[in-house]
Amino acid sequence: MSELLQFLFSGVTVGAVYALVALGFTIIYNASDVVNFAQGEFVMLGGMITFAAHAAGLPLPLAAVSAIVLTAGLGVAMNKLAIEPARGAPVVSLIIITIGASIFIQGAAQIVFGKQIHSFPAFSGDAPIRVAGATILPQSLWVIGGAVAVFIALWLFFTRTLLGRAVLATSNNRLAAQLVGINTNFVMTLSFALSAGIGALAGVLATPITLTAYNVGIAFALKGFAGAMLGGMGNPKGALVGGFSIGLIEALTAGYLSSTYKDAAAFVVILAVLFFMPQGLFGRKSTDRV
Amino acid sequence: MKTTTALATLMALGLTTPALAEIRIGASISATGPAAFLGDPQVKTLEMLVEALNAAGGIDGEEVTLIHYDDGGDPNKARTFATRLIEDDEVVAIIGGTTTGATMSILSVAEDAEIPFISLAGAIEIIDPVRPFTFKTPHTDRMACQKIFEDIQARGFTNVAMISGTDGFGASMQAQCKAVIGDYGLTLVADESYNPTDADMTAQLTKIRNTEGVEALINPGFGQGPSIVTRNYAQLGLEIPFYQSHGVASNGFIDLAGADAAEGVRLPGTALLVADILPEGDAQRDIALAYKTAFEEATGTPVSTFGGYAHDAFLILTDAIARAGSTEPQAIRDAIEQTTGLVGTTGTYTFTPDDHLGLDLSAFRMLEIQSGAWTTVE
């Protein structure tokens, strides 16, 4: 019993990180159909800037906020300098541009922050919480809480606010959105700022568990992307469920079968789901109106 | 000392070889890329040593020029750079190959061109079988396993569990450990693995904890993985003796894992890591302290074992060039092979025609982390 509980705790800890990263993909995807492969770099920057600011003497909360704001600013810069000039290019070209941006950010981070692995203290200490013979770190609860909070905020944003609907409208048909008076340029800028901010938040919350280095972004992006695909790209609920599912599948496979096959097991499940439900678990059906 | 006396005598007799030409040494190192963590201190070490050597008059009055390229750990680039070093830069010897992959590329080029090559990578395949022009300075993974198993045996345990990273380093060491575990009469009762980017290994550790009769745990791997394993080990309240590998032998590991979690962790490391606490009479004390002080002053970053490999390679090479009194690659190669009792930061090197590593198990020190600092076990 305590064994199963420990596997579940392990899965939830990892899954929450995947879910947080997956949530970051949703906004840009919803605004432009672009899968932003620099999302992992935003996560890395969140952790790295917090580390650097904390090491420079800022208190941890202030360091975390400055990391999120700076990264959001960087997201805006990326939109202005790399995505906007290529407006009108096919989505595939834009995705390739985000891969280029990812490589650029990684290289710059390597020069600015160095090549060492870094971390900063957990928010509520390192003493594990014991539940029925299993243990979980307080920081895992922060990550889980962060993932749920971001999910609720995104869900409210997309369903209850005019701005959120404007984002969806821009994605659906850019020209039509402009015709009804939506400032699509502003929507794009906003979506990059929000996505980068959420990515940085994920980095801030996860770094005390996962540690950070200039090159961790790709691994984050791949697992987060897998979570988002499983749940249904663009749907916050899908990102949350997808991220947690992958974490749990990995942990249970490692616990009951063999740790050698845990990544394979997760991808077999993803392939199976996508085979029967190409839109993912909660993906929107493509609605082409004539 | 003996060498200089001998050379002075020769010079006095007017028999010394004609003055050496400018000595060009090549290097291909992973200053960037996935192995930058290892290659970065190596490049800085070589630059620092060349500068210090030239300031002190070079080798027999001849300046040493270092030509180095960044191969990013990519074997294809390493091959290109090795060719360029030999054909365009006309170097007399090559140091480098931070990773085993890059080393294997450089090795074939250097052997074809008959240029001495000293590798900084770990795998045993580099010097087994022995190739005439290839040498290496770091211990092999197999020696790290042997050192750990010796210690486990001495503590009277027989049942061992392993949790290994699936990266090149972890996978290679896992294989080497399995190959030699039988020699020590130990049994591997659990063999788990993790992906180097994983965030949590409590599932694997729980499985190991529930395996019957586990008496010791070994974690081959480098990067952030071992730090996370160590934290999870503490989180689960495991108490079996815990061994890390030489892959994480740096102060950074204690910081990342946390001093509390790392308490009591043992690993095979080099004298460099414990230079401050080596006893006065220790043969490696002076050289390890000198390198540590110089490196930390020059770069402002803590010294690492990996930089030490580059230090020793440079030491072996310059010592051999001085003894050879020539910049002919063949003469340098012969002089390297005759190196005897040369004290470096990693160990004391004695090469023979059958042994191009030149180190034995005594070069590894079994270290234990106590109250956030390294101590020696022996």
Features of the shown structure:
heterodimer, A: 290 residues, mainly alpha, two-stranded antiparallel ribbon, 2% strand, B: 378 residues, alpha/beta, Rossmann fold, 5-stranded parallel sheet
Description:
The complex is a heterodimer of chains A (about 290) and B (about 375). Chain A is mainly α. Chain A has one domain. Chain A is built from 11 helices and 2 strands. A 5-stranded parallel beta sheet of chain B has the order 2-1-3-4-5, sandwiched between helices. A 4-stranded parallel beta sheet of chain B has the order 7-6-8-9, with helices on both faces. Chain B has a 3-stranded antiparallel beta sheet with strand order 10-13-14. Chain B folds into 2 domains: about 1-140 and about 285-360, Response regulator (Rossmann fold, 3-Layer(aba) Sandwich), CATH 3.40.50; about 140-270, Rossmann fold (3-Layer(aba) Sandwich). In chain B, about 40% of the residues lie in helices and about 15% in strands. The two termini of chain B are about 30 Å apart. In chain B, helix 3 (about 75-85) runs parallel beside helix 4 (about 100-115), helix 5 (about 140-155) crosses helix 6 and helix 12 packs across helix 13. In chain B, about 55% of the residues are buried. The model of chain B is unreliable at about 10-20 (pLDDT under 50). Chain B has about 375 residues and is an alpha/beta fold. Chain B has helices at about 1-10, 35-55, 75-85, 100-115, 140-155, 170-180, 200-210, 225-235, 250-255, 260, 285-300, 305-325, 330-335; strands spanning about 25-30, 65-70, 95, 115-120, 135, 160-165, 185-195, 215-220, 240-245, 265-270, 340-345, 350, 365-370, 375. In chain B, strand 1, helix 2 (about 35-55) and strand 2 form a beta-alpha-beta unit. The chains are: A mainly alpha (about 290), B alpha/beta (about 375). The interface of A and B includes residues 3, 116, 213, 215 and 252 of A. Chain A: One of its GO terms (molecular function) is transmembrane transporter activity.
